[in-house]
From TrEMBL:
It comes from the Eukaryota. It comes from Colletotrichum godetiae. The keyword Coiled coil applies. PANTHER family: ANKYRIN REPEAT DOMAIN-CONTAINING PROTEIN 39 HOMOLOG-RELATED, HETEROKARYON INCOMPATIBILITY DOMAIN-CONTAINING PROTEIN. Residues 174-201 form a coiled coil. Keywords: Coiled coil. It holds the Pfam family HET. This is Heterokaryon incompatibility domain-containing protein. Residues 39-212 form the Heterokaryon incompatibility domain. The lineage of its organism: Eukaryota, Fungi, Dikarya, Ascomycota, Pezizomycotina. InterPro entries: HET, HetReg/Transcr_Mod.
């Protein structure tokens, strides 16, 4: 398709369901005679069940006209082609019903097109066209009128029956009512089963559906039989279909309960089996990474997902950043094959260049390799400490779009290892803590630490103050690199919250560089500034990154 514009928002192909024909894009965004038709997208998993060679020779692929590739065959235990075609037709019908309830007075044009990967992406592995279209899935899913998440192991009746059973079992027995521990365990166990009722479906273990889930939190669950799920047993689920976002919010709510028990063990201990099992179920579902609206948390969530190729841990999420990396990058040598580490470095470099503040808004669950603390990894987790950094507003814009970038981040090669490089203002952390701990600190600051020094997310102002003091005493030479702060509004009295990168001197400095200061990333921090932007005080200037306590610095970090 030589005339296709890779930067356009439309797919290379759409499946015209009435004729089961894969229709190519034409200039002007035409598909056949239809210009810019509405379409729905299907998010599902099938790669692990793909049949190869002579296995099940009687099983055929989906019958689609207009394709030049062999349609993949799928193990019928996962789903049959008849079931797939039924789901496609049901999805179109249900989409119109849902829209009818949402907009009862608006005339709606019919939807005849579906975006389905096997019918709309060239299925020859490692082909240039396949790589390019895989790199455009963010645009494709965002352009869909609706997205359906196809669960292949759950029926509507099974879901309703299990939900009713969980409700009945939520009431403790007389013995449990007298025993606080048993009562808490029962509740935790029911919550685990409620989560696993959905999360054990293969859709929740696929790497590719993870990025689709991030792109489409309003995706609608549809069962193997083409039925909608709903949160209540109503006659027509189209009135109130279950959305992925409902499940994401529920998992986040339950995780808050878990961390509360971990932080302040009263009735139940943090190492209790029921608490551990519940936390494990939430983490495996990948929903916590989705609750954060920052895409950088997806690489950490991806470690709980299954993929046949490790490199797909980057390829499978790059679309949410609007990046095309590795083989999907325009002009890349089709015979090239970058390693996973090369892809992770490339992803990290792009983030440093395009989103310097956001690139650091995470914490490492385990300390990264030497020199690799500058980029996100599979150990990256969303910070549950810093205010607002995980939130979006106004059509998905992040809080960082209203901040001034105060540091320049890039990479530098030292002894054959790619390190991060910064240029910007730094301040001794002890100086900030001194202000935070005084009555002039206007609310103090918050730190969120990497690795072994990572503190629990559940905390209060007093504990936050103690943590900052303790870290300052343990690391007297630590500095804060000012990453960003809100643009000043001279006419208004407001308090902003700058964000910074917490750095400590790297103990192996001499073995890395003799000419450049080398630092180890320790975490991230945030603090309140003065309510009087033009107060002119030394303390106010320090909090706003403007006093002589801040010096221009450059160095490597990792």
């Amino acid at each position: 398709m030589s005339d296709f514009d890779n930067d356009c928002a439309w797919p290379r192909r759409l499946l015209h369901l009435p004729t089961m024909t894969s229709v190519q894009w034409k200039p002007g965004n035409y598909y056949g005679k239809d210009r810019e038709p509405r379409y729905i997208a299907i998010s599902y998993t099938w790669g692990r069940w793909r049949l190869k060679g002579a296995t099940h020779p009687d099983v055929k692929g989906l019958a689609v006209h207009g394709v030049a590739w062999e349609m993949p065959r799928v193990d019928p235990d996962h789903f049959t082609m008849g079931e797939m075609e039924n789901v496609l037709r049901s999805a179109l019908k249900l989409s119109m019903e849902i829209e009818g309830f949402d907009n009862p007075k608006e005339p709606l044009s019919p939807i005849n097109y579906i975006w389905l990967d096997v019918a709309c992406i060239y299925q020859t592995r490692n082909s240039a066209e396949m790589a390019m279209e895989v790199g455009r899935q963010a645009k494709i899913f965002k352009g869909a009128t609706q997205t359906f998440a196809w669960l292949t192991k759950l029926s509507r009746q099974d879901y309703v029956t299990q939900a009713e059973r969980h409700l009945e079992q939520a009431t403790p027995t007389r013995a449990e009512a007298k025993n606080g521990l048993d009562k808490v365990r029962r509740r935790l166990d029911i919550k685990r089963r409620e989560i696993e009722q959905l999360s054990l479906d293969p859709w929740f273990s696929s790497l590719w559906t993870l990025q689709e889930a991030y792109l489409c939190p309003q995706a609608i669950f549809i069962t193997r039989q083409g039925e909608l799920l709903s949160q209540s047993d109503i006659d027509n689920p189209a009135k109130d279909p279950m959305l992925l976002s409902y499940f994401i919010d529920y998992c986040d709510h339950v995780m808050t309960i878990v961390t509360s028990h971990e932080k302040k063990p009263q009735t139940i201990e943090p190492n209790d089996k029921y608490l551990i099992l519940l936390k494990s179920s939430i983490e495996r579902s990948g929903m916590i990474g989705l609750r954060s609206t920052l895409p950088i948390t997806l690489l950490g969530a991806a470690r709980h997902r299954t993929t046949s190729r490790e490199k797909d841990r980057v390829y499978g999420i790059m679309q949410v950043f609007n990046f095309r990396l590795g083989k999907a990058r325009p002009g890349y040598d089709p015979n090239g094959d970058p390693s996973l580490q090369e892809l992770e470095d490339e992803l990290g470099r792009e983030l440093l260049a395009q989103e310097p503040i956001m690139s650091q808004m995470h914490v490492f669950e385990n300390l990264p390799q030497v020199g690799k603390g500058w980029r996100i990894s599979q150990d990256s987790q969303p910070t549950r400490r810093l205010h607002l950094v995980n939130q979006t507003y106004s059509e998905g814009k992040s809080v960082f779009e209203g901040m001034l970038v105060k540091a320049q981040l890039s990479t530098i090669t030292l002894n054959g290892v790619n390190w991060g490089h910064f240029s910007g203002k730094t301040c001794k952390f002890s100086k900030l803590v001194e202000i935070w701990d005084s009555d002039k600190g206007w609310g103090g600051g918050i730190i969120d630490l990497d690795g072994a020094e990572h503190w629990t997310a559940v905390h209060g102002p007093d504990l936050a103050r103690k943590e900052a003091i303790a870290f300052s005493q343990h690391h007297p030479h630590a500095v804060v690199l000012l990453l960003g702060l809100a643009e000043k509004q001279a006419s208004t009295k407001s308090s902003s919250m700058p964000v910074g990168l917490l750095l400590v001197p790297f103990s192996g400095q001499s073995g890395v560089s003799e000419n450049l200061d080398v630092w180890q990333r320790a975490g991230v921090c945030q603090w309140w500034t003065s309510y009087e932007p033009n107060s002119g005080s030394e303390v106010g200037g320090t909090l706003e990154g403007e006093s002589r306590d801040w010096i221009l610095s450059a160095g490597a970090f990792g």
